[in-house]
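FORM 7B: Structural annotation worksheet

SECTION A. Query
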Amino acid sequence: MPHAPQHADAVAHTVTEADAESLTGSVTEAVTGSVSGVTAAELDAALRGGPFHVALRAAISARGLPLQRVQHHLSRHGVKVGVTSLSYWQQGARRPQRPESLRAVRALEEILQLPDESLIRLLAENDGTAAAGRPTGRTYRSFLAASDVLEKLFVELECPADDGLHTLGHHERVRIGAYRELLERESQHIVRAHRDGVDRFVAVHHGDPGCAPERMSVRALENCRTGRVRRHHDTGVLVAEFLFDTRLRAGDTFLFGYAVEDGTAGACREYVRGFGAPGGQYALQVRFDEHAVPVRCHRFTRHSAAAPRGGRQELAVGRHRSVHLVEPRVRSGMVGIGWDWE
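SECTION B. Predicted structure
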């Protein structure tokens, strides 16, 4: 599930774009700013269609601000970024990726009087597109649509915002089938109740684009039984209730497991898990069919659904055709494993 984006920190941060500094040559826009004469309609089109650098350049031009003034306004927001970096961002020579840079982008949305998430969203969508124009992951819009649907389904299932459980451990196993599809995932949870009366857990499965939730199935594996199940075809969302058959008291621990059988979409290229709050250990294993082994795998993180990926680390596919990651203590945000078929 997507999470509410964080606002720019009040503490000053210095943005040192090492990649930008590696470029040489004079930057005329560092003195003059971008071209002028952008209309409101042109700015709106740039914000809707992107890419990021075009939208940023249009927004700066529409406000009539030279880059030195933009830099000054950023410093008043507690964010320090060089004029050279700003120029490279709006030229498309470099994209902000580090956490400090993303804080600067969020501040720019306020300084340039843009809608919340308008620039961050474009960064996320560009990040989810391969050089060949082929999507490698879900877009920010798809996460928003799923979030709206989930909110309605949670109301229907009478699921409170606080489920009363704190995760001590969460281990997931994902199986990729012979046709490169997400075939199944199993989840094992170790939880502790922080209030009395907790007797269920509501699981969410967000299938890959083109999936058919009505053909998915769920099953209880350990210490629980399946309750109500809700599906939403357009977003690929499935929500399942797992009943404990006991009411936990505050401080009680509980272990349970369940599985979701999918296999209804096309080629899967990543698996992502979102966390709304800090928790205990998270382990993810992805196992590939012998007839569908990717050429490379990597792990990555995202601070939110609107943020670009970071923390990329290559993972070697072992002789058992599997890769895994372990987070000793999760933080709010997203972590996942991605792979390339060709």
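SECTION C. Observations
Confidence is low (pLDDT under 50) at residues 1-36, 128-136. Residues 13-127 form one domain.

SECTION D. Sign-off
Analyst initials: ____
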